[in-house]
Amino acid sequence: MLADGLLLAIFRPCQNFRLFPFTTFHNLQMGIDIRRHHVKKGNRAAPKSEDAYLLLLVKLYRFLARRTDSKFNRVILRRLFMSKINRPPISISRIVKETKGSNPDNSKTVVVVGTILDDERLPEVPKLTVAALRFSTGARERITAAGGEAITLDQLALRAPTGSNTVLLRGKRNVREAVKHFGGPLKGGKPYIESKGRKFEKARGRRKVCLFTGVHGVWLTSLRLQSRGFKIKSTHK
């Protein structure tokens, strides 16, 4: 009975659960979380991909995140859970640019949970040690030709199990073509266009059937019409 009294004292002030009346411990029933009913966590606890290599990396870094106090391993594990859209690629030129201040002598290992791509606009590649999920053929060849190393994330775990002497980078997420179309009306989103011919997008602002929209568009249309000799009557007095 003492245990029943303690349970009553604990559960009675709790307002988050609707508890059914009970008198003894055996009559205690499960309550309903009113505030967060049917609410699921949005964070991933495992990757959706069935890639065997990725699942092995998750197993490795889950062990390291549990057995070490390093925040680096927890960040790597969380990024391994992400979708491909949230693991964007990064080019060699971007790596060189971003590590100019944090890694001037290129002594640290650059870590990217994603793909490394080549950039033909970069004439010379410095000696780099890069650890990533995968490399394009051109990027791997240029890194190794410069005397650097292109290693995998499991090789990185053997070299730096706590992430010491590393620089963690990731690519830009919002440079995809699809992102340019996001947003509602008057939000600056790029429209989806089916026809771009003489009577369609090329005629924007020149034909009455497809004028510019919005305040700025009306102003541009009026300027174009005035330049062609049309007189525009102002409605403002």
UniProtKB/TrEMBL annotation:
Species of origin: Cryptococcus amylolentus CBS 6039
Pfam family, one: Ribosomal_L18
Signal peptide range in chain numbering: none
GO molecular function list: RNA binding; structural constituent of ribosome
UniProt KW Aminoacyl-tRNA synthetase keyword: no
Domain named Large ribosomal subunit protein uL15/eL18: residues: 31-212
A cellular component term, taken from the record's GO annotations: cytosolic large ribosomal subunit
Entry protein name: Large ribosomal subunit protein uL15/eL18 domain-containing protein
Classification via SUPFAM superfamilies: Ribosomal proteins L15p and L18e
Keyword annotations of the record: Ribonucleoprotein, Ribosomal protein
PANTHER family for the chain: 60S RIBOSOMAL PROTEIN L18, LARGE RIBOSOMAL SUBUNIT PROTEIN EL18
GO biological process: translation
Gene3D superfamilies reported for this sequence: 3.100.10.10
Keyword Transmembrane helix: no
Family label: Belongs to the eukaryotic ribosomal protein eL18 family.
